[in-house]
């Protein structure tokens, strides 16, 4: 197991370099960030040259990349073009997004699993069809529609909640955004749990458990659920990564100043250090989440052993 | 008292394509210490009958419209679900064909064996584990103490089937139903497992229903045989009588299709045609389209299971001719 982890960590290195380099090239190849800083007016050539030198923009792209990465490993993500250190932006943005993602995951587990188990055990009944219809609707409607709709109805029309989240983004204000963010994954969790339960309910070992004279409850909880939840748990693991990054739309709608919000601002204002810095962190989050999922698999299913 | 008596059992399955009559009036009985072999092709209803006895049929789609299953003289079909659950595993147990899929892949064998004691006897976790080790030793699994925490996939096929047997034996039941217990095993391991099962059966004086299509296994261990075809018993007899002189053309066909050394070089006999589609069982005697001795009456009239002497029965209009051949 230890060797497996080391090997996986080493495999991450080329993936990390490849993805960050791609992002770096895309961000710096599109437009001129110095020009973008000055907006409509043409910049003073001397100032522009000074800025280019400061941000290494006068060097070839690969060199810029190497210099940038070197600095990252010392914890220096550089400054945004307005002079604010990128790490400072991260320091405020990540806690907010993590809070949002954790709440979303909790919703996925509480609601998604409950609905999945309910429908999986009552296949073909009205509850089942009802929930299936609901998940279908949820999956087909994009987040920006459900988000805007929820914001309009609950926040504006009925005034139950504040339509925009305050800059500090306390957990209670994040409840509705987290639910919106979780909605699509929640529907997938429901369906995955239901299918997995239905599949395993026909398994031979469930028949054995019944033949052993175990109570219905014990057959369901100990034998059926334990096996059926393996794919669900791993789905939730991978979802941690996508929730962190996928909060972009939700954060925009509810004006939450998290990772997605900062990333969007960075892109719109061509604030390259911000974009590359945030994406680099997200790449790491994704890679670690995937490793975690693979390790989780081995814990949940004893048949899988990594060497 | 007779240990188990199945009387005129019918099992239907309600499917999208209509009602499939999987079992049509099967009757058989098992005494303590006796081995009944139920023989038949797949789809003959032999496993469904056993599942009905165990009470593990999926209902729906399954349904038991008619029949009685008397266990120690009490009809299982009129009992409450809770009463039946207490009998299941404790007084009657089942051994399944493929131990790898029949054991739970994510629980240790020790847990799965111990569960019997915890659920039926209220044993503690520790007691259950100790008893699990004891059971594993009883079915001759080497290094039982060290392996009690292993998972099913860490055992060989033969060892897994031993664990399956240990689980069935855990509470020393009166009746064991073994559904093709050796089909998934190598021939050498098959013999060991059958021997173990026979030994334990003798030790505890259990009744055993052995469901199989393997005539070789049957000859060694069974006391009596019920041959099933298309959801009905077509012949019942003691093992010796049946092997010596079958009273039904289907049984005769089965026996003739065993490869024999003294017929080396000759073409092996095979029963013509295929087993019937259970949704469209032929009228009259269900075997008539494949029967070499079929006549007009076979196409129209269902032969009853007639007594043909010394406790034997045959559901053939021409059992006398078949016996005489």
Strand residues, percent of chain B: 15-25%
CATH architecture level-2 label of the largest domain in chain A: Orthogonal Bundle
Write down the overall mean pLDDT of chain B. Answer: 87
Order of helices and strands of chain A: HHHHHHHHHHHH
Q: How many separate domains make up the residues of chain A?
A: 2
Biggest chain pair interface: A-B, 22 and 26 residues
Backbone CA Rg of chain B = 21 Å
Shape of chain B: globular
Oligomer: heterodimer
Order of helices and strands of chain B: EEEHEEHEHHHHHEHEHEEHHHEEH
Residues in helix, % of chain A: over 70%
Q: What is the rounded Rg of chain A?
A: 24 Å
CATH top level of the largest domain in chain A?
Answer: Mainly Alpha
What labels would you give this structure?
heterodimer, A: 307 residues, mainly alpha, MetI-like fold, 2 domains, 12 helices, B: 325 residues, alpha/beta, eight-stranded mixed β-sheet, four-stranded antiparallel β-sheet, 13 helices
Question: What is this structure's SSE topology?
Answer:
The complex is a heterodimer of chains A (307) and B (325).
Chain A: H1 2-29, H2 33-38, H3 45-54, H4 61-72, H5 86-121, H6 126-140, H7 143-157, H8 175-201, H9 204-211, H10 216-254, H11 259-268, H12 272-300
Helix pairs in contact in A: 1-12, 5-6, 5-8, 5-10, 5-11, 5-12, 6-8, 7-8, 7-10, 8-10, 9-10, 10-11, 10-12, 11-12
Chain B: E1 4-15, E2 18-30, E3 35-39, H1 46-54, E4 62-71, E5 74-75, H2 81-87, E6 92-95, H3 99-102, H4 109-121, H5 125-138, H6 144-147, H7 157-169, E7 175-179, H8 187-204, E8 207-212, H9 215-221, E9 224-229, E10 232-238, H10 239-244, H11 249-256, H12 296-300, E11 306-307, E12 313-314, H13 319-324
Parallel strand pairs in B: 3-8, 3-9, 6-7, 7-8
Antiparallel strand pairs in B: 1-2, 1-4, 4-5, 9-10, 10-12, 11-12
């Amino acid at each position: 197991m230890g060797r497996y982890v080391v090997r996986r960590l080493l495999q991450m290195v080329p993936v990390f370099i490849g993805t960050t380099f791609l992002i770096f090239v895309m961000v710096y190849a599109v437009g001129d960030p110095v020009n973008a800083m000055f907006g409509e007016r043409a910049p003073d050539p001397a100032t522009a040259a000074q800025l280019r030198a400061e941000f290494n923009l006068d060097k070839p792209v690969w060199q810029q990349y190497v210099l940038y990465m070197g600095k990252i490993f010392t914890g220096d993500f550089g400054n945004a073009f307005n002079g604010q250190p990128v790490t400072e932006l991260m320091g405020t943005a990540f806690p907010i997004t993590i809070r949002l993602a954790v709440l979303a995951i909790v919703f996925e587990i509480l609601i998604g699993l409950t609905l999945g188990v309910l429908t999986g055990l009552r296949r073909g009944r009205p509850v089942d069809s009802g929930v299936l219809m609901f998940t279908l609707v949820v999956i087909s409607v994009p987040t920006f529609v459900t988000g805007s709709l929820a914001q309009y109805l609950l926040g504006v029309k009925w005034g139950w909640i504040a339509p925009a989240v305050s800059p500090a983004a306390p957990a209670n204000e994040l409840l509705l955004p987290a639910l919106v963010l979780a909605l699509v994954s929640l529907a997938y969790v429901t369906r995955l749990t239901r299918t997995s339960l239905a599949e395993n309910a026909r398994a031979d070992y469930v028949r054995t458990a019944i033949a052993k004279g175990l109570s219905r409850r014990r057959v369901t909880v100990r034998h059926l659920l334990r096996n059926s939840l393996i794919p669900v748990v791993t789905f939730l693991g991978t979802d941690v990564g996508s929730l962190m990054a996928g909060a972009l739309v939700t954060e925009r709608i509810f004006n939450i100043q998290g990772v997605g919000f900062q990333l969007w601002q960075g892109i719109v204002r061509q604030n390259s250090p911000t974009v590359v810095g945030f994406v680099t962190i997200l790449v790491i989050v994704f890679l670690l989440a995937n490793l975690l999922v693979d390790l989780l698999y081995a814990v949940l299913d004893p048949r899988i052993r990594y060497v | 008292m007779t240990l188990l008596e199945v009387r005129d059992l019918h099992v239907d399955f309600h499917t999208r394509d209509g009602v499939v009559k999987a079992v049509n009036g099967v009757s058989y009985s098992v005494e303590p210490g006796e081995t009944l072999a139920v023989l038949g092709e797949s789809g003959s209803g032999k496993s469904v009958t056993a599942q009905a006895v165990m009470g593990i049929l999926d209902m729906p789609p399954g349904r038991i419209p008619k029949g009685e299953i008397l266990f120690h003289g009490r009809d299982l079909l009129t009992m409450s679900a809770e009463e039946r659950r207490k009998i299941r595993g404790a007084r009657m147990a089942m051994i399944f064909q493929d131990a790898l899929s029949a054991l739970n892949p994510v629980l240790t064998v020790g847990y799965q064996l111990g569960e019997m004691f915890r659920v039926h006897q209220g044993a503690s976790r520790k007691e259950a584990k100790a008893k699990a080790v004891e059971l594993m030793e009883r079915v001759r699994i080497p290094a039982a103490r060290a392996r009690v925490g292993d998972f099913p996939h860490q055992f060989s096929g033969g060892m897994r089937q031993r664990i399956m047997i240990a689980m069935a034996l855990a509470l020393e039941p009166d009746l064991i139903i073994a559904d093709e217990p050796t089909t998934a095993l190598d021939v050498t391991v098959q013999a060991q497992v059958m021997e173990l099962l026979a030994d334990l059966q003798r030790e505890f004086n259990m009744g055993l229903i052995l469901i199989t299509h393997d005539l070789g296994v049957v000859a060694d261990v069974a006391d009596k045989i019920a041959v099933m075809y298309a959801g009905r018993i077509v012949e019942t007899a003691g093992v010796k009588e049946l092997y010596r002189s079958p009273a039904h053309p289907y049984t005769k066909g089965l026996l003739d299709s065993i490869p024999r050394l003294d017929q080396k070089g000759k073409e092996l006999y095979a029963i013509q045609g295929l087993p019937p589609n259970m949704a469209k069982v032929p009228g009259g005697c269900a075997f008539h389209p494949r029967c070499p001795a079929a006549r007009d009456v076979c196409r129209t009239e269902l032969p009853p299971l007639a007594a043909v002497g010394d406790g034997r029965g045959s559901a053939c209009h021409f059992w006398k001719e078949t016996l005489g051949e």
